[in-house]
């Protein structure tokens, strides 16, 4: 393959690609309907011309047929008058018009077929144009829907989903952190009074017990009943307990 052939193919391929990309379905379909409408006008004009020509042929055929009949009647008249030469001339004229009429009859039959064919083509073209208009509207609607969907998909494709989700996750973590800090601040705000009352409530039992022990030691409260001492002498274990009790008493007196 020569260089010019290859270059020509590349140029044509690029041109075809440019044309294909530049084609707008709506505009192309509208132009197609317009072209079909122009074809319809031409077909109608052709049908009208064919019918007009058929009418003229019919008129000429009728005239020649009438002339042939007329000269036949004249030939009869000439023979009845004994003028054979005039009758022969009349028959010659009749033959000429009859032959012309026969030719026109053949032409008229052909024209009738052509007119009928053109009429069928006209009806078929009108039907195709009507169908094309309906299909055009449907295709244009589908093209617009496809274009809108393509734009939506392009927009969605251009969005960084992972980055967006990461941003949402960061903001969610930040909101959770803000909520935790807000809750902590609230708890700290109410900690003072609540804690003080809790300490008082938890410490009241100890203070009461301490006061009772002091009263017992000073003799203001009824001492707790101790089990009766055994007649046996104190054991070394009892001595140790007494010493611990004495030490406890000293500690209470120092309070």
Automatic annotation (TrEMBL):
Q: Which domain of life does the UniProt lineage start with?
A: Bacteria
Q: Which UniProt keywords apply?
A: Coiled coil
Pfam families associated with the record = PspA_IM30
Q: Where is this region: Disordered?
A: 220-242
Coiled-coil ranges from the UniProt annotation: 101-149
Q: Which InterPro entries match?
A: PspA_VIPP1
The family annotation for this protein states: Belongs to the PspA/Vipp/IM30 family.
Protein name, please? Phage shock protein A, PspA
Organism, as annotated = Rippkaea orientalis (strain PCC 8801 / RF-1)
């Amino acid at each position: 393959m020569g260089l010019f052939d290859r270059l020509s193919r590349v140029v044509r391929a690029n041109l075809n690609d440019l044309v294909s990309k530049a084609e707008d379905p709506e505009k192309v379909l509208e132009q197609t309907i317009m072209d079909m409408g122009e074809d319809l006008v031409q077909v109608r004009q052709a049908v009208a011309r064919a019918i007009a020509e058929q009418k003229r042929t019919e008129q000429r055929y009728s005239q020649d047929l009438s002339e042939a009949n007329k000269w036949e009647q004249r030939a009869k008249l000439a023979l009845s008058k004994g003028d054979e030469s005039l009758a022969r001339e009349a028959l010659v004229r009749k033959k000429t018009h009859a032959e012309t009429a026969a030719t026109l009859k053949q032409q008229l039959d052909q024209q009738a077929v052509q007119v009928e064919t053109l009429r069928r083509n006209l009806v078929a073209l009108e039907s195709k144009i009507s169908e094309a208009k309906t299909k055009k509207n449907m295709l244009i609607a589908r093209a617009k829907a496809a274009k809108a969907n393509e734009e939506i998909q392009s927009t969605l494709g251009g969005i960084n989903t992972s980055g967006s989700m990461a941003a949402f996750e960061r903001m969610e973590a930040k909101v959770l952190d803000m909520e935790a800090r807000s809750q902590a601040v609230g708890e700290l705000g109410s900690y003072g009074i609540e804690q003080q009352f809790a300490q008082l409530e938890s410490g009241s039992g100890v203070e009461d017990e301490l006061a009772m022990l002091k009263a017992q030691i000073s003799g203001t409260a009824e001492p707790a009943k101790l089990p009766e001492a055994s007649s046996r002498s104190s054991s070394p274990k009892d001595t140790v307990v007494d010493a611990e009790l004495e030490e406890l008493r000293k500690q209470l007196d120092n309070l």
